[in-house]
Amino acid sequence: VLPVVAIVGRPNVGKSTLVNRILGRREAVVEDVPGVTRDRVSYKAEWTGRQFMVTDTGGWEPDAKGMGMAIATQAELAMRTADAIVVVVDATVGATATDEAVARVLRRSKAPVLLAANKVDSERMEAEAASLWSLGLGEPYTISAAHGRGTGDLLDRILEAL
Ligand code: GDP
Ligand code: MG
């Protein structure tokens, strides 16, 4: 049985883009319209010779009532079923109320939680992630899922945590 890494976070932060980056191919559904990923989809992945499952989550209508609740539920589910959890936040937006709701759930996680500050597409954007320490999930790892910036380091951290 392979260890499971769950990717959680609110819509449009780049979860599916990160999953594709981890898989090294286009498979998870990425859309400019948030909420296209079906509830949860798992894929077999490999990094530095180690295999694991990566679970993409999503599929909520961005403005539907109870979206925050659905995401919190997904985070709860991840806590119970995953061996490590990656919370993705959009560093160009900063922590939203929904991000904070997810963080509140995951601060109780027994499984290791890593905070990925996504959309840091260039060096000069690095500083924008510093405010994400406020989520109480430890160091924000800056990445650009779209360009692959920092994602190798994040994968190293994920495997260390497993
Ligand atoms: P999800 O809803 O969290 O799964 O987000 P998606 O992976 O579907 O991405 C939402 C939008 O953000 C898409 O338009 C992506 O192209 C864009 N996006 C994802 N990662 C990055 C990134 O690292 N940098 C930038 N600039 N855009 C990104
Ligand atoms: Mg998605």
From TrEMBL:
- Cite the binding residues for GTP 1: 9-16, 56-60, 118-121
Provide the EngA-type G domain boundaries: 3-162
Where are the coiled-coil regions? none
Q: What does this protein do?
A: GTPase that plays an essential role in the late steps of ribosome biogenesis.
User: Whom does it interact with, and what assembly results?
Assistant: Associates with the 50S ribosomal subunit.
By sequence similarity, the record places it as follows: Belongs to the TRAFAC class TrmE-Era-EngA-EngB-Septin-like GTPase superfamily. EngA (Der) GTPase family.
**This chain belongs to which protein, by name?**
GTPase Der
Source species of the chain: Gordonia phthalatica
- Lineage in the entry? Bacteria, Bacillati, Actinomycetota, Actinomycetes, Mycobacteriales
Q: Which gene encodes it?
A: engA
